[in-house]
User: What shape does this take?
Amino acid sequence: DIDDVGHKYHLELVLEDVLDKDSTVNCTAEVLYHLGNKNLPPDVQFTIEGELKNADEADNIFYNQIKSLEKELVAENIPDSHGNVPPEMEPIRLLAWVASGYVIWQNSTENTKFQLAQIKHVKQVKRSDEYLEFDYRILLHEMVSQEIIPWQMTVLWHPQHSVQVTQDSRQPKHASE
Amino acid sequence: TSNMKWILIFSALFGASLCLETFVGHQVLRIKTTNEEEVKKLQLLESLEHLGLDFWINPSTPALPVDVRIPANSVQAVKAFLEFHGIEYSILIEDLQVVLDKEKQDMAYSQQRERSSNSFNYGTYHPLDSIYAELDHLASEYSNIVSKLQIGESFEKRPLYVLKFSTGGSNRPAIWIDAGIHSREWVTQASAIWIAKKIASDYGKDPSITSLLNKMDIFLLTVTNPDGYVFTHTTNRMWRKTRSKNQGSLCVGVDPNRNWDAGFGGPGASSNPCSDSYRGRSAQSEVEVKSVVDFIKNHGNFRAFLTLHSYSQLLMYPYGYKCTEPADHAELDALGRAAASSIQSLYGTTFTVGSICNTIYQASGGSIDWSYDYGIKYSFAFELRDTGRYGFLLPANQIIPTAEETWLGLKTIMEHVRDNPY
Assistant: This one.
C-alpha cells in the first residue's frame, strides 16, 4: 500500500516460450495500480534475466508468406469452436495474442483478469510500406465478471520492429447475443 | 438425394479452403541425417528464406529425423540439393492439400457415420443430440449397472438426463457429478460422457471402481444446461447462461451457478439480466437448478457433490459466498490436495487447491455452497484445462487427456467418500 498513490506489487515470474516449453527465462516486475482514477493503466517496470530466444527465422518465413499472398488475408473464428487452428493461421493467432496483451494491460485493474478468448475476424489491410497491418476483431474473456467483451484492434508489425497496436476500441455487445 | 448433399458439402468445403492460402503441390519430406556434416547442410538449407521451407522438426542432431514442408515451386530444388549431397529422404506427404481436404471430409463424414454405427468418438465435441444418443447407448450396452433417468426439463423443454450407476441395493449412499452447467465450457460435457463410459466399462475390472459401486451409487448429469449448450452450437459459442426469458429485459438467461440458494443476492453475482453472472430473480428460479435440488432432496442420501467447470485448473471447496472457512476445511483441503496430486500424476497438469473465495473470487449462489450447507460434506468444484491459452476453445485433442486426468481426481475423492461414511 502506498498512501495516496495506490497499490504496488513486486513479482517474480518465469517466462516460458510458447513454442518451446523447455526454454524459460526469469523475470522480475513491479506493477503499480493507481488509486482512484480507474482510467489510468497500471505502471509496469520489468527486468528480464538473460535473453529471449531469437525468432528471426520464423518471423521471416511468416512475413514472406503474407507478402506473397495474392489477395489480402481474411479469416474468422481462430480458434474455431472445436479449438482448431489451421497451421498457417498460427502466427496470426500468436500476433493477436501479443497485441491483445497490450490492450489487456491498458484496461486492467486489480479487479480484472483478462484472457484472449477468440479472434472473431481478422483482415489484412493493404499498405504501401513494408509493414504488415491487420485489423482484428477479438473477444476478451474477463474472468471476474465472466463477461465476453468484443474489441477491435489495429496491429502493425514487421520482423525487425516490435508489435504495435495503433488503434483499439471496445465494441458494443448486442442484447440478443 | 444424399448424393446431392455430399456434392454440396464437398464444394462448400473446397470453397472454404480456397479462401485461405492453399498447400497444393506442397510436399512433406522426412530427411535422415547420418552425421553432423549433413545436419549442417540442412541448417544451411533452412537459412535460405526464399525457399519458404517450413520445418516441422528442425535439423539439430543426427539422432533425430528432419521433417520439412516444401512449397510446390521449391520441391525440385530441394530434392536436387539432397540427392547431390547423398542425403537420404523419404516422402511423408505427396501433396499436403490432398491430406487437408481429406481431413475436412473425414470430419464431416464421421459425424454422419456416428449416427448409424455405435462408434462414438470421445475425442471430439458433439452436439446435444449425439450426446443424448450415446447416453441411451451406454444404458443399453451396460444395462446391468447403468440406467438413464429424467430429472426434469430445461426452460426450452429439453429433457435433463442423469445416468445412474448402481449394482443394486435400495437408495444406497450416492455420489453426484454434474457437467456443463455453464454451456460454453465444452470440455466438461465432453469429459463427462467419457467418464460415463469409463465407469461403466471399468466395473468388474478396476478394483477401486468395483468396490465403490458395490457400496455406493453414482449419478452423473452430463449436460446440466442443454438449452445453453444447443445455443453454443447454433448461435454463440461463448454463451454461458440458461436461455430463460427475463421479464422486462431484452437480455436472455441466468447464470445457473449464481442461482442456488446459498448466500443468494450477496456479493459476487449481478442483478442485471444482461450480465453473464446474473443471479436470476430469486434462488432456484431456473428450472435446471430446481430440478437438481429437488432430485437430491428427494433422494435424501447423497454423500458427495462434484461439479465440473472450465477453465483455470482449480480444485475448490466451499465457500464462495463468504470468505470464512467451512467447518470441514482441514479435511476438504487435504482431500483436495490428494486429488490434485492424482490429476498431476498422469500428464503433469497442475491444479490449484483452495476455497472458492480464496482461489477465484467471491461468488454467491453457487452449487457447492448449497450442497455443503445442505449437509453434503464432500462438495468440490473443478475447473478443468487449460489456464487461458485456448480457454473455452480447448482443442478436441485434449478432451481425452483432460477426461483421463480428471477421472483420477474424481476417483481419489470418491474412494475417500467410500472409506469415510458419515
User: Anything to note?
Assistant: The interface with chain A takes residues 19-21, 23, 46-47, 49-50, 52-54, 124-125, 186, 232-233, 235-240, 249-252, 255, 270, 274-277, 312, 360-361, 388-396, 398 of chain B (CB under 8 Å). The CA atoms of residues 271 and 281 of chain B lie 8 Å apart. The domain at 27-94 of chain B is CATH 3.30.70.340 (Alpha-Beta Plaits).
